[in-house]
């Protein structure tokens, strides 16, 4: 029996990490966005438009700097904040972003026309389920931040479009902890969303086809990558 860690056990090991105070620390102490991104972020917060939180922004900035993707696909443009952030973090990348909400599309077009000075971003209007099959080539980074119930439906085509070392990231997968609640205890109008997320987890978690990781950033981020065997066999 190993006694060392029993005698001097670290009490922090079994404490929850992401408390409100920790979230506030991550959002306040990490480098803030500036310039055009700050303008778009401020507009989003003032108008209650959901955008990725600051701790996720900083993570994306670092990840994209490491990956240096050539092509990025985003499903769920909203007002263009995350697309502009990714364009800034991956200044040589081509970015395709998809949205179907007319009000968001109009606002995104204004922001992209004003701030996408290098013309990296192409906005496709319509349902992602209909547009994804028309896309060609590979993407090194795919970000889904749209209808959560549809993530599992978008996954097969997204995997086809993903490059050998590419990564898929899906946002807001915790749903404020509702993924832990029995489905019949969830409000009826939320059950389709929850069923879609649970189908997604059943498909990708502990599946030898995928490398997966869940990160407690914002309302939860799921990362998915092809395993080497799937790359070699083309599955």
From TrEMBL:
Which GO biological process categories is it annotated with? methylation
Q: Where does S-adenosyl-L-methionine bind?
A: 52, 82, 99, 127-128, 145
- What GO annotations for molecular function exist for this entry? methyltransferase activity
Q: Which UniProt keywords apply?
A: Methyltransferase, S-adenosyl-L-methionine, Transferase, tRNA processing
**One Pfam family per UniProt:** Methyltransf_3
Q: What InterPro entries does the record point to?
A: Cation-dep_OMT, SAM-dependent_MTases_sf, SAM_O-MeTrfase, TrmR_methyltr
Q: Which reaction does it catalyse?
A: 5-hydroxyuridine(34) in tRNA + S-adenosyl-L-methionine = 5-methoxyuridine(34) in tRNA + S-adenosyl-L-homocysteine + H(+)
Enzyme nomenclature, EC number: 2.1.1.-
Q: Does the keyword Secreted apply?
A: no
Cited function? Catalyzes the methylation of 5-hydroxyuridine (ho5U) to form 5-methoxyuridine (mo5U) at position 34 in tRNAs.
Q: Which family does it belong to?
A: Belongs to the class I-like SAM-binding methyltransferase superfamily. Cation-dependent O-methyltransferase family.
The UniProt subunit note reads as follows: Homodimer.
Q: What is this protein called?
A: tRNA 5-hydroxyuridine methyltransferase
Q: Which gene encodes it?
A: trmR
């Amino acid at each position: 029996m190993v006694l060392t860690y029993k005698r001097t056990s670290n009490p922090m090991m079994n404490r929850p990490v992401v408390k409100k105070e920790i979230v506030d620390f991550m959002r306040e102490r990490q480098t803030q966005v500036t310039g055009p991104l700050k303008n778009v972020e401020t507009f989003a917060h003032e108008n209650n438009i959901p955008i990725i939180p600051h701790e996720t922004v900083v993570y994306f900035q670092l990840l994209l700097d490491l990956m240096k993707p050539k092509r990025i696909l985003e499903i769920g443009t909203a007002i263009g904040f995350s697309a502009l952030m990714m364009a800034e973090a991956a200044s040589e990348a081509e970015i395709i972003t998809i949205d179907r909400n007319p009000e968001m599309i109009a606002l995104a077009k204004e922001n992209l026309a004003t701030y996408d000075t290098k013309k990296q971003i192409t906005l496709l209007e319509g349902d992602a389920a209909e547009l994804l099959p028309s896309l060609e080539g590979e993407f090194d980074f795919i970000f889904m931040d749209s209808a959560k119930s549809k993530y599992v439906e978008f996954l097969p085509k997204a995997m086809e479009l993903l490059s050998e070392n590419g990564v898929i990231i899906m946002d807001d997968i915790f749903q404020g902890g509702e993924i832990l609640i029995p489905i019949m205890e969830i409000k009826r109008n939320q059950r389709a969303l929850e069923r879609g997320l649970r189908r997604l987890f059943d498909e990708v978690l502990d599946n030898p086809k995928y490398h997966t990781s869940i990160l407690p950033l914002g309302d939860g981020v799921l990362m998915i990558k092809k395993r080497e065997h799937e790359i070699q066999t083309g599955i």
